Amino acid sequence: MMKFAKYTLLSAAIAVAPFVASTSANADEYYRRHHHNNGDAIALGALGLATGVIVGSAIASQPREVYVEPEPVYVEPEPVYVRPAPAYVRPAPAYVRPAPVYVDDYPPAPQRVYGAAVEPWSPEWYDYCATRYRSFNSRTGTYVGYDGRSHFCTSG
C-alpha cells in the first residue's frame, strides 16, 4: 500500500510540474504590466522547497517491515560494514645515486721538448702551437690563455 502511495504522489508531482512552468510563460505581458516584483518568486520557491522537504521526509521515513498475513514477518536487515581485504601496495621506488664513472679517453697531454726550440712562423711551429692551444690564431701567432689575455706562442 505504501508503494502505491509513493508512486501516486510522485506521478502527481510530475504531472503538475508542466502546468506550473506554463502559467508563468503565458502570463508575460500581463505580469509585466500589473506586478512590480513583490516577491512572488521567492514565496513560490520557499513553498516548493517546503513541499520537497515534506515529501522527501515522508518517503525516507517508510518502515522497513513488510507485513503479510499468512506468512511470517520479514524485517529488512540493517546494513553491515564489511572491512575490505588488505591490498598490497608496492612502495615507491627510492632514489639510488649511481656510482661515479671515470672516463679516461682524453688525448694525452703534449710532451714538453727541452732544448729543441722551434723557429717561429715555421710549419713545425704552426703544428706545435695548433696542437698545444685550442685558441691558437695562426695569423697573429697568439693564443688566449686562462687569464683572458692573448699570448705569443713560443715552443721550448
Automatic annotation (TrEMBL):
It holds the Pfam family BA14K. Keywords: Cell membrane, Lectin, Membrane, Signal. GO terms for molecular function: carbohydrate binding. The keyword Ubl conjugation does not apply. GO terms for cellular component: membrane. Has immunoglobulin-binding and hemagglutination properties, and can bind to mannose. Essential for virulence. May be involved in LPS biosynthesis or polysaccharide transport. Belongs to the BA14k family. This is Lectin-like protein BA14k.
